[in-house]
Every structure is written in C-alpha cells, then in structure tokens.
Design goal:
CATH superfamily of the largest domain: Glycogen Phosphorylase B
Largest sheet: 6 strands, parallel
CATH architecture of the largest domain: 3-Layer(aba) Sandwich
Number of strands: 12
CATH topology of the largest domain: Rossmann fold
Strand order of the largest sheet: 2-1-3-4-5-6
Shape: globular
Oligomer: single chain
Length: 446
C-alpha cells in the first residue's frame, strides 16, 4: 500500500490555504512502522464483481461486513445502540458482522505511539505555520493512532466496509484506495456545523477549516451514504454529496415493550435524555413553572445524567417544582415508558433521537421540537405535538393542553405506536441497509 503520510496531505493543503502558506511539498516524517510489509501494494484498485443479487430479506449473498467507529464501543448513547441493532439485525439475516473501535486495540501500544507522534505533530505544525491548536493536535493524534491500529486488521476479507463517523470514513477511505471495496458512511450528526453552532469551534477558525475538510473528504471517499433522516441532505450537499449517493433509512429499534399500565390519580410526564445543554431540559422546567397551577397531580420524571444535572437540580429548587424528580441513569426505560402518559423532549439541536422512537413504541403521547429529522416521524397533531426549539411559551401551552386532554393523549399515543411498528423496527431498518449493500456489490461498487 502507498505510504501514509502524516498529517493527511489534504488536511495540510486546507490549512496551507487558511494560513496563506504557499504550496510546498509535505516534508512530515512518514511513521508507518513497516506498513508496506504488512500489506502488499496493489498495482491498481480492485473492484468487487458479482452476479446480479437480490437484496430482499437476506435473499442475496451472505456477506462479511465491517462496522467501524471512531468512538469507543460499546458505550452509553444512541450511536452505540444503533451499531448494536445493525449488527444483530444483519447477523439474524445470516451475515458475518464485525465491529471495530479504538478501545478494541491494546492501550499500551496506543500510548507508545502517542509518545512518538505528539512531539512530531507539534514540530510539524510549528515549523509550517508557526503555531498549533490543541484540538487539531489531539484529532491528528487520534486519527493516526487508530489508523496504525487498523493496519493490523485484514480489511480485504470484508465484502462491505461501513463507517459510522467522518473520522473512520477518512481512515477506511485511505485504505480503500487500494482495496476498492464498497465503503458506506453513516453520519450521526453534522460534526462541524453543530460544534460551530454551540461555540465548541470558533467560526472562521483553523479548526473549522480542518474539520470541514475531514467531513468533505469522508463524503468523497464514500461509495454510498446511509443517512438517518432527510434533514442531512442539504448540509451534506453543501459539502459535496450527490443526491444519488444518499439513501435515507430511519433508525429502527428492537424495543422490548412493556404492557402499558394506567396510572391512578396522576399524570406522568417523562423526559429521557442525557443532561446536556442541547436537550432543552431548562426550557422544560421553565415551561412547567409557567403552568404551575395546571400540574397538580402531575409527576415529572427526568431520566438520564450528565454535566448539567447540578444546575438543573438547582433550577428545580429555585422554581419550587416539587413534583419534578431526577431518576439518573436507568436500565429499565421500557418500564418507565409503560407508565408514562406524556413523553417530552424539548431538544434544541438533534438528529433523530432514539428516545423518541422508544416513546413511540411505548404508546406514550409525545411532545417535542422541530429539530433535525424529528418531524419526519413526529407529524404534528397526528403522531405527536411539535413546538419550535427554545420556545418556552409554546412548550408550556402544549403541555397544559396535553395534561388536560386525555382523549388527545390516547389518540397521539396510538398513532405513534402504529407508525413505529410499521416503519421504525430493527427489521425495517436492516432490510433497507442490507438491500443497499447487495445493490452496491451487484453493481461492482459503483
């Protein structure tokens, strides 16, 4: 395989332009540790050629599939749940599926590479640009270590490579220049856009340039992209994605439902989400305080944990919301939802939250916001109620309405349940993704 220069040449080119450095050869030291001896260099890209295959319910070739992520697996969160659901669904169809994540490799080796690469990185950026940022150094270091670890994986044995983030898509994309495998990319968020929006990356900074280039290159490397909702289409197209290479497959889950239990003498409102700034918990508490007279006999359950817990608990005390309880992390979400009359997720930035899909399967009435792909499954006044993110007045009004209207709650809950059973199951999601795999192989990866 070709030498893996470090940092990636296209990232250097993007930063050269940002800093106004005239193009010059990349002189960064190659740190491959015998890469070419591990992989025989190919004369040209290989293309997978197969007979026409049928992509219906596992009716085609049984495949060997690699699902790869840049984040530790397993972990708590929607991405980890998605990967597990995809793996189990594909295995149920008879396919062989492996998952690779950075924490699957020896941490001792990773630390040794880190000791070498961090000084090299700092020297490279300092000599070329006169400065460096800690975030870019950290990203380059993590990319390089994961790529070096990936050198030990026999990627050629897989029929399909499926990256679950922009970083892994870059790493697999570089290897795949020689392998010529179908490489799929599923973004679980618009990485750069979200971080700029929430001031985690400064607009117009070198970090924005760096991460946008990684995102753009991930799209370029991908043979095809599986997107979680249509809300990804416009931002991805701005980064160069072609409509023909995008297929929307809503997340499906294998939800272990618990029979609904009607509560006596009280209405239960649940919010199940990580206690972070973008989930809108503070808006929910403010909305509850505005309808304090209407929430007598209402119990509010905040399920989850995170960095905002202490601040939110203080807000509850300040607003004197005695009926709000923090339950922390729980592993009995189906049971909690079976006792929930109204599920609220007042998120201010999201894609397609798993918690909403779980609530739909439970038959709870759902109140949420117009974010990401939520409105593709929560249709206002049909499968739930939609308000604008951050609009506390709307949230309070709709909460009061749902609390006082049992018939509306039941209608919304029943409609959501039927929609989820028809469209948001593990089987529905996996069937569509498997069909994409088979079609790509049948067309030679084109």
């Amino acid at each position: 395989m070709k030498e893996l220069y470090f940092p990636y040449p296209y990232l250097v080119s993007a930063l050269d332009k940002y800093y106004g450095v005239k193009a010059k050869p990349i002189t960064a030291k190659t740190m491959d540790s015998g890469t070419d001896s591990k992989r025989k260099k190919k004369e040209r890209k290989s293309k997978v050629k197969t007979k026409k295959l049928k992509g219906k319910r596992g009716g085609g070739k049984k495949l060997s599939i690699l699902i790869a992520t840049f984040w530790d697996y397993p972990h708590t969160g929607g991405l980890s749940n998605y990967i597990t659901t995809l793996r189990e669904g594909l295995r149920a169809l008879g396919h062989k599926v492996d998952i690779i994540a950075p924490n699957h490799f020896t941490q001792i080796k990773a630390e040794k590479i880190r000791e070498v690469v961090v000084p090299e990185l700092k020297t490279f950026f300092k000599e070329r640009y006169g400065t460096y940022t800690s975030k870019i150094i950290q990203s380059c270091r993590l990319l390089y270590i994961y790529e070096q670890m990936m050198q030990t994986v026999k990627l050629e044995k897989y029929d399909i490579l499926h990256a679950q983030d922009l970083f892994t898509a870059n790493i697999l994309g570089r290897f795949n220049e020689d392998l010529g495998k179908p490489l799929l990319f599923t973004p679980h968020g618009m990485f750069t856009f979200s971080r700029v929006k929430f001031n985690r990356i400064e607009r117009g900074s070198e970090e924005e340039v760096y991460y946008k280039e990684i995102e753009r290159k991930a799209i370029e490397y991908a043979t095809h992209m599986v997107i979680l909702s249509d809300s990804f289409r416009d931002p991805l197209s701005l980064l160069g994605a072609k409509s023909a290479k995008l297929t929307t497959v809503n997340t499906g889950i294998d939800f272990k439902s618990v029979a609904r239990s009607e509560t006596r003498g009280k209405i239960v409102i649940s919010c199940i989400a990580r206690l972070g700034p973008r989930k809108g918990h503070s808006d929910l508490l403010n909305a509850l305080s505005r309808i304090n007279g209407a929430i007598h006999g209402v119990e509010v359950q905040i399920v989850g944990d995170g960095e905002m817990r202490e601040a939110l608990e203080a807000q509850v005390q300040s607003l004197r919301l005695s009926n709000v309880h923090f339950l922390g992390k729980r592993d009995d979400v189906p049971s909690i939802l079976s006792k929930t009359d109204i599920f609220v997720l007042p998120t201010i930035n999201d894609n397609l939250p798993i918690s909403i899909i779980e609530a739909m399967h439970s038959g709870a009435a759902i109140l949420t916001t117009n974010c990401g792909g939520i409105t593709e499954i929560i249709h206002h006044n049909e499968t739930g109620i939609i308000v604008e993110p951050g609009n506390v007045n709307q949230l309070a009004t709709q909460l009061k309405n749902l609390i006082g209207n049992e018939a509306l709650r039941k209608k919304l809950g029943n409609n959501a349940y039927q929609y989820a059973k028809n469209h948001l199951t593990r089987q529905a999601m996996v069937d569509k993704i498997e069909e994409i795999y088979q079609d790509l192989l049948a067309s030679g990866g084109e």
